[in-house]
Design a protein that fits this description.
alpha+beta, Nuclear Transport Factor 2, Chain: A, 7-stranded mixed sheet
């Protein structure tokens, strides 16, 4: 009986210690939503600055499809090339609304963006509604498709 008491105490201590470990708050990782919000902050900032290196870092994959407001399909590399060549010049861009929905390793981001810009010498300023699809690859969110719709055209 005397041997049973120490064994019981040791087991009880182990159970209490284990329960405390489980209830202790772990360091909170950056949430997926916060990571995606940061991508958008950086993305539109890079467009406004014409920062090609930042754009290439933000969208490192070649399989990101870009559908512009006229329905033309291209690759994100073409859009970045247009920034690099000066065909697309963005004076300012900001996000007015952002709705992020995460589904495990996939996310859909919808938003409203206002920009002052030109494309191939023509005014491209206005408000755009966008829908972007992201997948998480090796722990990093990567845009694989983006669709942009101009909702308030530039004034003539």
């Amino acid at each position: 009986m005397k041997q049973l008491l120490p064994i019981t105490l040791i087991l009880a201590m182990a159970v209490i210690t284990r329960a405390e470990e489980k209830s202790a708050p772990a360091a909170a990782p950056v949430s997926d939503e916060a990571a995606l919000r940061k991508i958008y902050h950086d993305w539109y900032g890079a467009f406004a600055k014409g920062d090609v290196a930042a754009l290439e870092k933000l969208v490192p994959n070649d399989d990101c499809l870009w559908i512009d407001s006229e329905g033309n399909v291209s690759n994100i590399r073409q859009v970045i090339a247009d920034v690099k060549s000066g065909a697309y010049k963005c004076e300012s861009a900001h996000i007015d609304k952002l709705n992020i929905r995460v589904f495990g390793d996939a996310a859909v981001v919808m938003g409203l963006e206002t920009e002052k810009s030109t494309y191939k010498g023509k005014d491209a300023s206005g408000q755009y509604r966008f829908t972007d699809t992201f997948v998480k690859r090796n722990g990093t969110w990567v845009c694989v498709a983006t669709v942009n719709q101009l909702i308030t055209p530039p004034k003539p």
